[in-house]
């Protein structure tokens, strides 16, 4: 496992995990887990370029997206941090500054 690409905590989604022997440890919730034992959830979400997305990734919007009830669209190039993947048509849950919590389709983003 590369030191610069540590997985987020599966319990609290914290990005501040660290390795300890063969385990990963979360300093925020004290959860310990073996990253080799993690089971694949079956949820596979890819961005517009075919890159695999995971919870906690940052993505960039690739086209202007109109938002119902808002006077302006989400502009192309807007960076969205700490996404959550979900089942369904709009498979990314996120929070965008100036717009609040919303769901996006993965076909309109690329991995940052």
Task: Walk me through what this model shows.
The protein is mainly β and 112 residues long. Helices cover 0% and strands 29% of the residues. The protein contains no helices and 11 strands. It has strands at residues 18-20, 23-25, 32-33, 45-46, 52-53, 59-61, 79-80, 84-85, 92-96, 100-104, 109-111. It has a 3-stranded antiparallel β-sheet, with no helix packed on it. Strands 7-6-11 form a 3-stranded antiparallel β-sheet, with no helix packed on it. A 3-stranded antiparallel β-sheet has the order 8-9-10, with no helix packed on it. The two termini are 21 Å apart.
Summarize the structure.
The protein is mainly β and 112 residues long. It is 0% helix and 29% strand.
Question: pLDDT under 50 segments (min length 5)?
Answer: none
The biggest sheet, with number of strands, parallel, antiparallel or mixed sense and barrel status, is: 3 strands, antiparallel
Mean pLDDT: 88
Helical/strand content category: mainly beta
The number of helical elements comes to 0
Form type:
elongated
Tell me the series of helices and strands, N- to C-terminal: EEEEEEEEEEE
β-strand amount: 25-35%
Question: Mind telling me the C-alpha Rg?
Answer: 16 Å
* Total count of strands: 11
Quote the distance from N terminus to C terminus: 21 Å
> Which range best describes the helical content: under 10%, 10-25%, 25-40%, 40-55%, 55-70% or over 70%?
under 10%
Major sheet: order of its strands? 1-2-3
């Amino acid at each position: 496992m590369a030191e610069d690409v540590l997985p987020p905590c599966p319990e609290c989604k914290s990005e501040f995990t660290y390795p300890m022997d063969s385990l990963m440890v979360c300093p925020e919730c004290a959860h310990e887990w073996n990253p080799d034992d993690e089971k694949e959830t079956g949820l596979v979400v890819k961005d517009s370029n075919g890159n695999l997305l995971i919870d906690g990734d940052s993505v960039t919007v690739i086209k202007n997206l109109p938002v119902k009830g808002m006077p302006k669209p989400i502009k192309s190039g807007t960076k969205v941090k700490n996404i959550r993947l979900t089942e369904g048509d709009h498979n990314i849950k996120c929070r965008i500054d100036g717009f609040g919590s919303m769901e996006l389709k993965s076909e309109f983003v690329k991995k940052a």
